[in-house]
Amino acid sequence: MAFTQEEERAPQLAYVGRAAPDFTAEGVDGKGEFHTYSLRDFKNKWVVLFFYPLDFTFVCPTEITEFSDRIDEFKQLDAVILGMSTDSVHSHKAWLKDLGELKYPLLADMSHDISRDFGVLIPERGIALRGTFVIDPDGILRYALYHDLSVGRSVDEVVRVLHALQTGELCPASWRPGQKTLGATG
After folding, report:
1. Non-local CB neighbours of 121 within 8 Å, separated by 6+ positions
2. Which Pfam families does the entry mention (predicted)?
3. pTM
């Protein structure tokens, strides 16, 4: 049975507790060099994937540079950071001249397929909401958070959630590393 092109490209849709939608995207590393990145390249690592609306905007650089400034915290948690928008890698590279060197790559989703699969695409505008996703070393989506375009995300909260997920235990509201958990998850 032959599939139409549209049927072959049916969205994978991201759901917490299920395998994260796989993707391959062109990206630019923090030094401005182009590479191809796939989610499967990071098997056995925690992945923090965040989407942002556009390069050369006002709120986005505050998030992007804070993730870079705090990269050592993520490395200590065996996590990699991947930033993504619907801009091109050439736009990303040009923006790096303003942002300075980043310690993680910015990926391009010009087809909008990845943004659609993760549920962040605003189709009528061709841009992504601010979405943050934590994917475990087995490729399972463990955390998803969506923000309005006008509100920057909290990198503190992303670090806290990553710590909590790595305990493998039940963590109460406002739990912080070093605090008591509620016990095993089951």
Report:
1. 86, 112, 115, 127, 128, 129
2. AhpC-TSA
3. 0.90
Mean pLDDT of 110-118: 96
Pair of tokens at residue 93: 């590279």
Positive or negative, the CA dihedral 16, 19, 21, 22 is positive
pLDDT at 31: 87
Full residue range of the structural domain in which residue 128 is found: 5-167
Catalogue the active-site residues.
60
Q: Would you say residue 6 has pLDDT above 80? A: no
What is the domain-level CATH number for residue 161?
A: 3.40.30.10
For residue 86, the number of C-alpha atoms closer than 13 Å in the C-beta half-sphere is 20
CA distance 159 to 157: 5
Fill in the DSSP letter of residue 42.
G
